Amino acid sequence: QVQLVQSGGGSAQAGGSLRLSCVASGHLYGSYSMGWFRQAPGKRREGVAVIDSDGSTDYIDSVKGRFTISLNTANNTLYLQMDSLKPEDTGMYYCAADVRGGSVVSWVPDYNFRGQGTQVTVSS
Description:
By secondary structure, this protein is an all-beta fold.
């Protein structure tokens, strides 16, 4: 089992920045992947960013150049740095993890383990 506890998020104005954190505990070793997905009201879940145990990353096109995913293996903490925020980035953000490995961002919403979610609201 893997437990994921999120922090960060909140509200920002368009053009601003926020950072999300996610601490992982439990059996996550060898080949694994961690990522972020989001869901806005009335919309489907979408993978935002992913990083695998080899350090490979992938992003959804709409956040490329604005968001950065990183993983600190020393303290098992996943981060999502969100810059140049847009109102369309508004939604509930979840961190997720799986032991499958790979860095395909569209897979992230289907990962077996997920955090409790945190709201991100961007105003224009």
